[in-house]
Amino acid sequence: MKAKILLGLVVFFLALQAIRPAKNLSTVAPFTGKDDITVLFPTPPEVRQLLAASCYDCHSNSTHYPWYAEVQPVGWWLASHVNEARRELNFAEFGQYTRKRQIKKLESVVDEVREGGMPLKSYTFIHRNAQLSAAQIDALCRWAEATGDKIPAP
């Protein structure tokens, strides 16, 4: 009886592998699309590095997927997480936002990063290079604030 249950669970798990979520893979390299925030506004190399390491996997159109994203249901959870993050803020589509929304999103970046809400602890647990030091938080927030000041009036 236990063998049949175990076999059933293995078959079920294998069947789950056939149902794959769409991946967030752009044909445009990060930091190059016409609507990318770093193309629209001057971004120092150190801030681009921080954005790449700590933000762009979830908040752009180019996610670098780890090997375990191929294992379902983990892949579904990651896809859901990335889709939700992009709906909230997509740096690669920043130029498509209204001026008001751009300003609000940059203010949110500052608030979330300063309060420790971003990057998520679940992300930095696996991606240690995404953890931000106090100096990095300050640099990212200063850049976001300065960028918000540069958004032209309509």
Description of the molecule:
It is a single chain. With 154 residues, the chain is an all-alpha fold. It has one domain (22-150). It is 54% helix and 0% strand. It has helices at 2-16, 37-40, 45-54, 74-88, 99-114, 121-126, 134-150. α5 packs antiparallel against α7 (134-150). The radius of gyration is 19 Å and the shape is elongated. 23% of the residues are buried. The mean pLDDT is 87.
Question: Could you outline the blueprint of secondary structure elements for this entry?
Answer:
Elements: H1 2-16, H2 37-40, H3 45-54, H4 74-88, H5 99-114, H6 121-126, H7 134-150
Helix pairs in contact: 3-7, 5-7
Quick recap:
This protein is an all-alpha fold and 154 residues long. The chain has seven helices and no strands. It has one domain (22-150).
User: Kindly state the mean pLDDT as a whole number?
Assistant: 87
Give the % helix.
40-55%
Gap between N and C termini: 70 Å
The rounded Rg comes to 19 Å
Number of helices: 7
Features:
154 residues; 7 helices; elongated
